[in-house]
Amino acid sequence: MHSTHLLLEEPIRMASILEPSKPSFFPAMTKIVGTLGSKSRSVEVISACLKAGMSVARFDFSWGDVDYHQETLENLKAAIKSTKKLCAVMLDTVGPELQVVNKSEKAISLEADTLVVLTPDQEQEASSQLLPINFMKPGDTIFIGQYLFTGSETTSVWLEVAELKGDDVVCKIKNTATLTGSLFTLHISQIHVDLPTLTEADKSVISTWGVRNKIDFLSLSYTRHAEDVRQARKFLSKLGDLYQTQIFAKIENVEGLTHFDEILQEADGVILSRGNLGIDLPPEKVFLFQKAAVYKCNMAGKPAVVTRVVDSMTDNLRPTRAEATDVANAILDGSDAILLGAETLRGLYPVETISIVGRICYEAEKVFNQDLYFKKTVKYVGEPMTHLESIASSAVRAAIKVKASVIICFTSSGRAARLIAKYRPTMPVLSVVIPRLKTNQLRWSFSGAFEARQSLIVRGLFPMLADPRHPAESTSATNESVLKVALDHGKASGLIKSHDRVVVCQKVGDASVVKIIELED
């Protein structure tokens, strides 16, 4: 791991730490995924979340019905319209998740050294003596002496299996805890759950809610093998526009970790679910997995998303010192995005959480050693480079040498812009997506909207959808026309100023061109 470690930019003056940060149009290059729920589903709160820096809205279907989430999504659309801020939509599947079911939602107090029974009979009411679970025949998998964990983000209980009584599992409670909520994930360390990764319930939600709302991302919970991703993609390919939906593999257990390389090849991105994975892994190994996984994602040019960073902000206005440092280290490792779960889903301070996490990301990005990262990436890619890889790395190198304020990339698929972002330029990359006219033999439509929104999870990439009246075919007149619109957009947003240098990456005929322009008054 030593060879992949990224140091801070040197030297850092201690006095500079106390200097206030300069205001920026983009508060951070790192993207923030916010989970919308009970405390963050009104138009007003969602609007504030968008302004604070949320660029992807996550809908967690492990709770709430389709109608509930549809109402939230309609509020998101209204917020996008009023704030004029783009936001992508991520559907998070339930997957083969084992859960403790608390239908009454009453707090459950569990006392250390007492016994509690886990039962597959979900009609029973949860109590301090009985916990219903959604796992049929647990006795076939669980053994005496095994450890189980359940709880919420900040409170968990450790159970030891003491006895098996038919389908019921009698456990000794190892620590005192109070569980609040309706569902708690049940973690059984290092076992294979013989359930499909994409369940029938997941398929139903995707084929109805997902199709209706043309989801941008599918978060595939408990991805264990590359075949899981292939099966999910095969399913999406039959659902109209969802063939364009990107699949993010959620790594949540040792099985997924073991097959990480093959999963990364198949997935469009990876979510490191540190909460669940932290149960399967020894605590001292979690950081090592994060660094190795993020590095592999970086070199593959695929987004790495890190979860469970500021759990304490579910109930508190400020993160702990350890959490603030954890967020910064995730950025220095090379993460593309931070995913907030309970902090925005049911936390008391969703807007403040997004804002604070964004500010921490911004500070970490300022000292990210881009020069070392660039050299490592070029060395990893090796020679000969592909045509696109060469253009992307050249654009970033040129932009840094001339101190450009922005890189503008013309793209139709989004691939060229993502490759530029792979090299982590110190300035924003404005991805100008050129729509393409396509047909399914029944109707004509323009592509481009999916590609634009899907860049909202890539570090440093900011999309702009060009006017569909501009043809995808590259001509000198078209390029100049779209470039003028992009520059005007940059000026209006405060991203570009007079006399700034801008690096432009575009196609001219059959050739790919990187050019540097200096703006006049």
UniProtKB/TrEMBL annotation:
Main location as per UniProt: cytoplasm
Pathway the protein contributes to: Carbohydrate degradation; glycolysis; pyruvate from D-glyceraldehyde 3-phosphate: step 5/5
Cellular component terms (Gene Ontology): cytosol
Origin superkingdom: Eukaryota
InterPro entries named in the record: Pyr_Knase, Pyrv/PenolPyrv_kinase-like_dom, Pyrv_kinase-like_dom_sf, Pyrv_Knase_brl, Pyrv_Knase_C, Pyrv_Knase_C_sf, Pyrv_Knase_insert_dom_sf
Cofactor(s), by name: K(+)
Intracellular or extracellular location(s): Cytoplasm, Cytosol
Annotated ranges, domain Pyruvate kinase barrel: 30-354
Gene Ontology MF terms: ATP binding; kinase activity; magnesium ion binding; potassium ion binding; pyruvate kinase activity
Enzyme class of the recorded protein, top EC level: transferase
Pfam families: PK (PF00224), PK_C (PF02887)
Keyword annotations from UniProtKB, A to Z: ATP-binding, Glycolysis, Kinase, Magnesium, Metal-binding, Nucleotide-binding, Potassium, Pyruvate, Transferase
Domain Pyruvate kinase C-terminal: 389-509
Catalytic activity: pyruvate + ATP = phosphoenolpyruvate + ADP + H(+)
Enzyme Commission number: 2.7.1.40
Family: Belongs to the pyruvate kinase family.
PANTHER family with a match to the protein in the record: PYRUVATE KINASE
Protein name: Pyruvate kinase
Organism: Musa balbisiana (Banana)
